Structures are given as C-alpha cells and as structure tokens.
Amino acid sequence: MAKYRKKPVVVEAIQYLPKEKNYDEVAEFLGWDQLDTYVDEDDKTFPIQTLEGTMIVCPCDWIIKGVKGEFYPCKPDIFEQTYEPVEEKED
C-alpha cells in the first residue's frame, strides 16, 4: 500500500473561548454575514456553514479557514496534533 504525506499548508484559525467572551472576534473571523447569529446559551454552541453542510462549533473548538476560504470546526486535540504555529518573517 502506498503512503502519502499531507502537504504543508498555512491556514488561519481562531479558538472559540466563550468564557473569555471572544464571540465577537470569532464573528469577525468568520464574517458576520456567514455566522448564524444565535448561540445556544445553555451549552454555548453555534452553527456554521461548511462545505459539508452545517456543523456545530463547541466551546474550545478551533475554527479553521481553509485554503479556498471555507470554514470548519476542529476539536482541540486534533488541532494540536495537526497544526503548529507559523513564525512570521520580519521584513
């Protein structure tokens, strides 16, 4: 069986932290027009539209902007295993 390595791709992402009240930052990242405007007050979840349909963002999930501008949620443990910070180059 052949093996394949995922190509290195730089993505933008933000972690949803409702205890820190960063919903506005998340909304700015997603674009207010793309964000369904309600948050379930009991469990602090909210839906977003992805290429695969509507998905639910839960507290501590990362929201990733893909290479084609699409958004999708990612659980924190998967995010940590898959992504690492990119050092920004100084000009």
Record keyword descriptors for this entry.
single chain, about 90 residues, alpha+beta, three-stranded antiparallel β-sheet, two-stranded antiparallel ribbon, 2 helices, 5 strands, about 25% strand
Write the layout of secondary structure elements.
Layout: E1 12-15, H1 23-30, E2 46-50, E3 53-57, E4 62-65, E5 71-74, H2 76-82
Antiparallel strand pairs: 1-4, 2-3, 4-5
Largest sheet composition: 3 strands, antiparallel
Sheet/helix structural class: alpha+beta
The percentage of residues in β strands lies in 15-25%
Helix percent band = 10-25%
Indicate the overall shape: globular
Task: Pick out the low-confidence regions.
Answer: none
Give a written overview of the molecule.
- With 91 residues, the chain is α+β, with helices and mostly antiparallel strands.
- The chain has one domain.
- 16% of the residues lie in helices and 24% in strands.
- It contains two helices and five strands; from the N terminus they run βαββββα.
- The strands form two sheets. Strands 1-4-5 form a three-stranded antiparallel sheet.
- A hairpin with a 5-residue loop joins strand 4 (62-65) and strand 5.
- The longest helix is centred in the first third of the chain and has 8 residues, at 23-30.
- It is globular, with a radius of gyration of 15 Å.
- The relative contact order is 0.20.
- The mean pLDDT is 88.
